[in-house]
Amino acid sequence: MGKSVTGFDWITILIYLLLVGFGWANIYSASLTDDFSSFLEFNQIYSKQGLWIILSFFLIIILLSIEGKFYQRFSSVIYAISLLSLAGLFIFGSTIAGQTAWYQIGSISIQPAEFAKAATALAVAKYLSGIQTNIKDFKHQLRVFLIIALPMILVLLQPDAGSAMVYFSFAFALYREGLHFAYLLLGFFAASIFVATLAFGPLWVIGGVLLIAILVYLKNLKRRPNILKYLFFAAVAVGFSLSVNYVFENVFKQHHRDRFNIVLGKEVDSRGIGYNTNQSEIAIGSGGLFGKGWTEGTQTKGHFVPEQHTDYIFSTVGEEWGFLGSTFILALFVLLMLRLLYLAERQRSTFNRVYGYGVIGIIFMHFLVNIGMVIGIFPTVGIPLPFLSYGGSGLWAFTILLFIFIKLDSDRMSF
Amino acid sequence: MRKLLLYIIILTTGIIFLARLFYLQIMDDSFTVRSQDNAIEVVYDYPQRGYISDRNGKLMVSNQPSYDVMAIPRNLKPFDTTEFCEILSIEPEELGHRLDKAKIYSPILPSVIIPQLTKSEYAYLQEKMRKYEGFYIQKRSLRDYQVDHGANILGYIAQVNQKKVNEDPYYISGDLIGRSGVEKTYEELLRGEKGVKYIQKDRFNRDIGPYKDGIYDTLPTKGKDISITIDAQLQAYGEKLMENKRGGIVAIEPESGEILSLVTAPNYDPALLVGRKRSPNYTRLYYDSIAQPLYDRGLLAEYPPGSPFKALTALIGLQEGVVDTDDRFSCNNGYNYGARRPLGCHAHPSPLDMVPGIAHSCNSYFAQVYRKTIEKHPTPQEGIDTWNKHLKSFGLGEFMGNDLSTGRPGKIPDAEYYNQIYNYPTYKWYSTATISNAIGQGEVLMTPIQLANMTATIANRGWYYTPHILKSVEGDPIKEEKFKVKNETSIDRKHFDPVVEGMHQVYKKGTARSLQIPGIEIAGKTGTAENYTKIDGKRTQLTDHSIFVAFAPVDNPKIAIAVFVENGYWGSRYAGRIASLMVEKYIKKEISRTDMEDWILSHSLEDEYAKPLSGEPFIINQ
Fold it and tell me: Please, is B42 exposed, middle or buried when counting C-beta atoms within 10 Å of its C-beta (0-12, 13-18, 19+)?
């Protein structure tokens, strides 16, 4: 391994350590209760997370010790196991907060959906790096979509719409490999309509779609546009929205709907529309330039922001570390993603590059949806902030996702 | 392009997020305010208000505990309204109305819902209080009056208004604040400092301990006890003498400027403006537009001073060198000037020099002295301004700068004033146009406290301390410079002796012969002021005001007093008797002339006050 140590991208590792360390400090603050006894009290949220962090270091050593080729060779197997573990939830899984997303083993609960993202990234990379695969070929496109859609649908059925949405991010990898831009746009619209329908209801979405269609049509009126084309696209969009809504309202039973609503924050919103977002904005806004200081946040102490140690961890950063602290976290994420992009582009193997793009896409999607939600410019969709949010499965899944790529990158010369 | 797209998207997202954070954290501070609103509860601990005693240490005002039912609308839960309303004897609609009002004011700040519970209401409600979430009982201290007089001096406290809350961060809605009198002037001494506790709340609004371990918390500081210069006994006596009359009495200790009593009539019991009855009682007093019990006549009423002003005319004449004490002026039942109607006078020996001139209050004498004073100067303008300057040195025609919560400047006209009313220089005016000033009619207006201060200045032979009401704070005599600096008048000391002698003669053989006090050498001056009102738009003369000023003893003055009785006819009739009794009461502590006291106590002027309101023709000065 002596040769490899210098081969690892230490910049990425350093950013990882900073994010995880800073994340723990904020989880500590957000989960601090009055009956404080000791750092070693293992029923405390922050000590549990501390344990997960320490264990993830061992995980990293294992990940980096495994031969890079292993990931490529066994990606199909990993993907298959991952699908099975998702499917198995419907038989063996336990339901927490309305979601059948967990395997309960003793006092530990594992969330396979978190790991499935890395597995899917491997599978997509494997398929696209195949010598016969041509992404411009419609048959091959269908196959890769299927690889992505299978875990996505299984996650959606838990139901975990937030995590399912993350799979749209593979569009970046596919586009990089030659997929037509239209798919990207389509994917973007599909994702937007998907979220918007669940968050605001189909009437608004249909209204919005028709309005956009009419505006674009009128703008292009001089060029004698084909009205049928517009009608077709509008009809497809409306149809998609309605079918999302139809599935939601008719196929799902009430308890499924409730779960969706919980995920979308509609039910948690116990004090009227926008309570979570409102409290989160208050917490962040009251931080000012320098913040109130670690463990000094009044909103954090009062636990005004629901789920603050998990999905809303960024509001603690905003309140206690201020504009400077939150800018620091934003900068770390942007730097991480740009660094990963740089690394992905320097790969000689397609597998490595596609996997790298998969990693970036997944991190970006979480970054976009989570922080967007916490600062109140995105609808409430419950997905964690990578490396910072509380949760062992999440931390481990992102650690695996990232360090497989670091390992692949360090091995790139050996191809 | 395929390589660049993700770069662009990542950077754009980063910039949008940064901009949003900049807006939330740097530009918009409403979030900081809202954070303090919902995460930290501020709890106040109200201190005892300072006590007020009179100059002899008699306690006038102390405190009684008072309990307000407060509500924080956001924390309200459904509750048994019927029971709640029954305990507090309030209509459910009224309660609903008040809660709505509180919600409009602020959903998260406390509002007073039911002020000042009775003791039994409090005792009963306290046990049930935990059933009414969102309500709590705030203890405050209310006034407990030990005397039934001096309401105009002491003033009252009431809930602070929104304007003051906005201006002064010390006050929050529901706080009590001094609204008039000593309570208002010395609010900051009396109120103390309220204690404050910051309590960190969680999102269920539960207490989770002191904010920052209580480093910002403070304990309440009790308000300071003060003594005022009023002699409570004299004040009570003055108010008793003024029953069924309207007017004012102001008594000052000349050597210190301390106000010994400040009577206005009609008046009211200070206890009326305490507790839950405060509001209806106040409304009733406020809307009594005829008797105007809330109008402090001693401080606010600007009357023509009448004859006591002649003392000033004499002093200015002497100072200006236009008259000598021996100069005699004749009086032919009045003073004739030009073609105008004469300034009438009453029957007395003639001609007179200064001392008997004052003693007999000869209008003709003072008209001639006044005219000489003004005409000493090349133009009447210069004459009037010189005269004005002398009067200003007595603190007339302007606010006195005292420590009373209210006051009026009175009126001492100057050249500019006459130029304006006579449209100078188109028309010229001469000293004769202003001749009524000589005898304190005309354009001169003074408040009773100014009249009293003028008397004190004469008693001191030429200087005065600015009258004030605060004597000591927590036993320490006041050191305020503005009350410890002698205000010297522009009149030389030597000129006061003949005037004082004249005022002494008023009692010896002049207009107040009948009012002498056995054993006390007293100096004084009667006054009778014509006055008018409008009835159905027509200027109608009413019975003259009865005015009297006095000080005693002549050689070592302990009290200077001005008494003003509206429509009391001539000076010695009402005002003179009252002044004489007040002086005796203050100096001898007992009244030897009980017949005079009985006369005052048994005589009412209510019939006189009813005349202009009767709607029928009436006879004045009878």
Answer: middle
pLDDT at B466: 93
CA distance B37 to A18: 34
Collapse the DSSP code of A113 into the 3-class scheme (helix H, G, I; strand E, B; otherwise coil) and give the result.
helix
**Would you mind telling me the total number of residues written for chain A in this entry?**
415
The pLDDT of residue A1: 40
Between CA A214 and CA A201 the distance in angstroms is: 21
Residue B264, token pair as written in the block: 């206005």
Structure tokens at B557: 């003055």
Strands of B195-201's sheet, edge to edge? B40-45, B195-201, B207-210
Which residue bears the tokens 């706080």?
B175
CA dihedral of A11, A12, A14, A15, whole degrees rounded to 10:
120
For A296, the closest chain B residue by CA position comes to B212
What beta strand segments (E) does B466-521 contain?
A: 470-473, 476-477, 487-488
Rounded Cα gap, residues B467 and B251, in angstroms? 10
Contact B39 A288 (CB under 8 A): no
Q: Is B261 exposed, middle or buried (0-12, 13-18, 19+ CB in 10 A)?
A: buried
Q: What is the pLDDT of residue A415?
A: 47
- Is residue A392 pLDDT above 80, yes or no? yes
Q: Which residues of B touch A318 (CB under 8 A)?
A: 21, 24-25
All domains of chain B in start order, with CATH: 41-228 (3.90.1310.10), 232-613 (3.40.710.10)
Ranking A14-28, A29-43, A156-170, B592-606 by mean pLDDT, the lowest is A29-43
User: Nearest to residue A98, comparing CAs of A221, A257, A287, A205?
Assistant: A257
Cβ–Cβ of A34/B39 closer than 8 Å? no
3 state DSSP class of B404: coil
**For B183-223, what is the HEC assignment?**
HHHCHHHHHCECEEEEEEECCCCCEEEEHHHHCCCECCECC
Q: What is the mean pLDDT, run by run of 10 residues, along chain B of 622 residues?
A: 87 93 82 63 83 93 87 83 84 88 80 82 83 84 89 89 85 86 92 83 68 73 92 94 92 94 91 82 86 88 90 92 85 67 72 86 88 90 92 90 88 90 84 85 90 94 93 89 90 92 86 83 88 81 89 93 90 88 92 90 87 81 76
Q: Other C-beta atoms within 10 Å of B589: how many?
A: 9
Mean pLDDT of the A267-296 span: 72
With CB atoms and an 8 Å threshold, state whether B26 touches A289. Answer: yes
Residue A268: predicted pLDDT: 47
pLDDT computed for residue B26 by the predictor: 85
Residue of A nearest to B212 (CA): A296
- Kindly state the DSSP code that residue B475 receives in the 8-state scheme: T
**CA angle (A63 as vertex; A62, A65 as ends), nearest 5:** 65
- Note the pLDDT of residue B386: 92
User: What pLDDT does residue B91 have?
Assistant: 87
Q: Structure tokens of B577? A: 């008797």
Distance between CA atoms of B269 and B265, rounded to whole angstroms?
Answer: 12
Contact A298 B34 (CB under 8 A): no
Report how far Cα B27 is from the mean position of its chain's Cα atoms. 48
Has residue A40 got a pLDDT over 60?
no
Whether A304 sits inside 8 A of B28 (CB atoms) is no
Q: What is the distance in angstroms between the CA of the first residue and the CA of the last residue of chain A?
A: 17
pLDDT at B166: 83
| Three-state secondary structure string covering B529-557 | EEEEEEECCEEEEEEEEEEEEEEECCCCC
pLDDT at A269: 44
